[in-house]
Amino acid sequence: MAVVARSAAFEPRPLKAVALILSLAAVLRLPLFATPFNNEHAWNEGHYATTALNFDQYGPWTQMNDLGEDHTTTPLYPWIIYASFKLFGVSEAAARLPGFLFGLLSVYLVFSIGRKLQDRRVGLLAALCAAAAPSIIYFSRNVQLESMSGCFGLLAFSLLLSWRQKLANRSLAWATSAQALSILTKQTMVLAFVPFYSLFFKREPKKFAWFMGLSVLPSATWVVLNYLDTGGGTGWYFSRPGEHNLHGIVPALAKGFLWLPEHVGPPIFLFVVIGLMKPLPEKRHLLAYSLIWLALAVPYPIAFMGNRYYDYPGLYGLCLIAGSGLATLRKQNILAVAVAAIVCFGGAKVVLRYRANRFSQMAKSETVPFFSAKEVRRINLDGGRVLVDYPQTAFYAGGDPAYIQCAHGDVRSGVDGSHPYVIANYFGKFYTAEEFDAFMTERGYAKILPLAYSNMR
User: Fold this and answer.
1) pTM (predicted TM-score)
2) Are 90 and 81 in contact (CB under 8 A)?
């Protein structure tokens, strides 16, 4: 393993510097920490928060959410959200706390990997990039699987570096455990095996076979048992026949590459380019770790274009390359300007995210987000059926799929008179308020709240 000699141009005390970077990461994430589930990909937040919410009623092994009884992913992450709910009460902040903490740990792990691959200077600059990259900020504190799975993937990466440098089998065993947890959280983390093999196991294929087999075993066992338990009912989650569209692969891949500068931010991406131009040790392996996630566009082009976080683990790889690019700046004043640009751009994106309102025009009639959904939950003491638009609304309306039906889009498609309560769309531009009022009146519903209707007399 090649190691670059340390530079004296930038040698702050590592503990203080790391603490400062982690503090910066926390500050950039806190403005979005307790906001309602109403921003980009908030359906994920409603989905996993609802799963945790329902463990009290259905038990920790039964995942109930907007899909009904859900066998698509393991309950590992919802269990941690559930523990947070028990400790701090049910709230958006409690739901986001696990992802927030895993995100901060990921920033530290980027420092650890950068230091082991090159030197402390590169590690600190790479960690700074991870602290301030816009999409890392946003999705590391979102209630979804990426922060936890990506963190365990980085932990496996760091431990594999320790194993290779020290030839300590204990580190390999811990790396296997970390990779197993990463895949158990989200199965797409199996893609990390590609760069891991080229970086660590080319000359030891038997050890790679053991590493891969033991890492996959827990998740594979869970998938097989659930497949058998549901009579093959979970097969759609992996096969997704509607996704097999050859014409969609090229646009999805093109979008994936074009998203990269946006996801890390132009200032960081500039130094990614600079880092790729210098003789960087293990450059092609880091590039492989950064880009391998775009391969998901091949089997799932539609989902890839609809979910802008499939490349999340690879963004940390780009930050490691950017750290090398930043390390080429030897003049402190120029480096300070570059760091300021990176932090300011990340901060500006946080402000824009905070101010963003993805509700429909109808939903702006409420002064408190999800007021109607929360009120329906309060008055619906008998568990009458409720029709909602998306999972995040289902969470605020009570979350139990025994009486909450999620339309996953325009609620008009589900209005058949069987729901005592219907909550109009918070998200999307499907209709005007007047059009929906007329639609519901024709079907015997009266408005009882700004966005809620009932057919009970």
Assistant:
1) 0.92
2) no
